[in-house]
Amino acid sequence: MRNINSIIMRLAKRAEKLQTEHLIKSFVDVGPTYTLLSSTDNQIMFGRRGTGKTHFLAVLNNEISNRGIISVPIDMRLIGSTGGIFSDQNIPLSERATRLLSDTLCNIHEVILDYIFENEIDKTTEITELLNNFLEQATALNIEGTSEEEIGSSNNISNNFSIKSNASLKSISAGMELTKGTAIGSSERIKTTGKRTLRIHFNSITKKLNDIVSMLPHKELWILIDEWSEIPLDLQPYLAELLRRILYPIPNITVKIAAIAHRCNFMEVDMNTGASIGIELGSDASSVINLDEYMVFDNDSDAAKNFFKNLLHRHVCAIDKNSICDREPNLFINDVFTQTSAFDEYVRAVEGVPRDAINIISLAAQTALANKISIFHIRNSAQKWFQVNKHAALNSRPEAVSLLDRIINEVIGHRKSRGFLISHEKNHKLIDYLYDMRVIHVLRQGVSAKNAVGKKYTLYTLDYGCYVELMSSKNAPLGLIIESDENDELQYIEVPKSDYRSVRNSILDLEEDNGQLRLNLFTSTEHLQLPNHQNKTKKSVERSINKNLINAIPENIGTLKIYGTIYIPIILVSLVLRKAKGFKKSNASELTKIINEHMSININRPKISANNMSRELRKSSILKLSWLNYHENGRQPLFSLNEKWSESWEEYFNNSAPTI
Question: Which top-rank group of organisms is this from (predicted)?
């Protein structure tokens, strides 16, 4: 087994299983997400399972703590009790939410108390006293019902007096006896009837908490709530309302909440009175961050590839104690995958979900063992991950399996695409569930279509696992969606555009008769049937590029000029790289792609444009180069190297030409 594959197989699948040091080393930001999350605004961060919410909060918690500010991480899976959350429905929601709030406040009390004793900060005694009062307020019980008090007393005094005398022939005796006894008794009985319930007074406990925060280091407190969606749905707006009333009025408290969009309910509105309880998104929570908007290959392939390249590289380096892996991300990817297209396939397969990315690459490494990871390994692993992980979860809702079957066979089977549009006019809970389970993905919202003026749609794509077994067959999807061109002819497109008005035959009407579908509906994903795939065609497999060749590329490629232009060395290096991959001839677009993949990009060295490359390759000064061959091929001419290329390499770069 390759050492690098062994390391990949050991990658941790969940952030809560990792030490803080590992989380810091393996963290990769997504666009401006972390910058937004680091602000002092009260925010809610949405993201499906596996998109990195816990990882983000863990890194944020570490940064805040390093600044000397107290940060309280709260995992809602560990808060509460059976009496507070899962008791019978006869207990009012408000009471169940109050119990959960009390447990949450007690957690805040415990973290602050631990911090002040561990760090021996000033005014420890005063803060401790305030914390004790805060705890009393958070756990105060109130009796709902009647209270009876009965007091009884008794006072008894007794006196006894007697004189005795005796006479006889021998003696005379006399005696006197006095007995006095006093008995006093009292009794008191208090009888209480009624129900003891938690009663938290907002003004009082908020004042206590405000006093505590004003005495803390930096006079700040951050509260990071994770796994909000684990709270029962009916309790969520009530708990949100209580947190809003207690925590939000204090200006120096920052609250961050991580949740799954389709599994949370932050506000409940009474349709009759218009009254609402809970947190209003965009108002009480000043901004909302959605991790699901980033990282999907179809949205921005370059951004997605860059993110997952760094994600995989940093996770591996974090557990690579023997420095086996290359510290340069591009060289690391070259060591892991057989070819660039294999890495591209990997990024497409993970559909923008980091947890899926870690699991798929781990399964691929188990299959590859002593070899580099190829497209074949990626596809097999993606299919296995879909079946093992998402398959079982879907089976708990047969109606969702049936809907997925309809979509697969309508979109892929009939339309030969993998994307579809659904109208905003109605909410579809099953669509939300499929999205939450990561078997469909959102690419764009608010899309317009030419044949439905005035309507807005959401653009979805099917998960890679839904069609991976068709990838090498004639039944593979031909594109993302179907659009019409200027001549009103239908064609498939891959890259989403900002204007979808030309989209046709991609709108999915969930109210259509089931009879239009080819297959019957099933109640288990084990029975899902994709269109038959026959006559599989084999694609030529690219060769991997040797690391020595990568190292031989001049560091200043992209700025180095030969005969007054940067394109002569760029074209030479591009053709050498393509030849190393097994391609004797290449067009301008292919040369552009490969040089951008292997050229470090910075401010002084921007990406090469395909149009510029094509323009340069039409110039007579370029075509006359001794090492370059030109091949007629219609509107896309091809180019290749001749035997003189190595001499020119040595002349241009003052180094021996690499072996390919």
Answer: Bacteria
> What is the three-class DSSP state of 100?
helix
CA distance linking residue 330 with residue 550, whole number of Å: 9
- Ranges 44-48, 192-196, 615-619: which has the least confidence: 192-196
Per DSSP, the chain holds a count of helices (H) and strands (E) of 23, 16
Q: Are 569 and 554 in contact (CB under 8 A)?
A: yes
Structural domain spans, the chain = 3-11+294-392, 33-140+202-291, 142-165+174-197, 404-527, 547-653
Kindly tell me if the per-residue pLDDT of 478 is higher than 90: no
Per-residue pLDDT tens for 360-401? 999 999 999 889 999 999 999 998 988 888 877 788 888 888
Whole-number Cα distances in Å, 400 to 403, 439, 531: 5, 11, 20
Please list the residues that pair with 628 across neighbouring strands. 641
Confidence of residue 480 (pLDDT cuts 50, 70, 90): confident
Q: How many Cβ atoms from other residues are within 10 Å of residue 54's Cβ?
A: 22
Residues 152/189, Cβ–Cβ less than 8 Å: yes
pTM to 2 decimal places: 0.67
- How many CB atoms lie under 10 A from the CB of residue 454? 5
DSSP string, 464-481: HHHHGGGTTSTTS--BSE
Q: Which helix (H) or strand (E) element contains residue 233?
A: none
Strands 70-75 and 221-226: parallel
Buried b (16+ CB within 10 A) or exposed e, 331-340: bbbbbbbbbb
For residue 339, give the nearest of 299, 377, 385 by alpha carbon: 377
d(CA 616, CA 630): 13
Among residues 625, 500, 535, which one has the least CA distance to residue 572? 625
The residue with tokens 């204090």 is 250
Please enumerate in sequence order all residues whose Cβ is within 8 A of that of 315, keeping only pairs 6 or more positions apart, or say none.
11, 12, 26, 358
Lookup: tokens for 300: 């921005």
Q: What is the mean pLDDT of the chain?
A: 79
| Other beta carbons within 10 Å of 530 | 18
Q: Which long-range contacts link 393-401 to residues 24+ away (Cβ below 8 Å)?
A: 393/437, 394/437, 394/439, 394/525, 395/523, 395/524, 395/525, 395/526, 397/430, 397/433, 398/523, 398/524, 399/430, 400/430, 400/433, 400/434, 400/437, 401/522, 401/523, 401/524, 401/525, 401/528
Question: Which residues touch 229 (CB under 8 Å, ≥6 apart)?
Answer: 259, 260, 263, 264
Pick the CATH number of 33-140+202-291 from 3.30.230, 2.60.120, 1.25.40, 3.40.50: 3.40.50
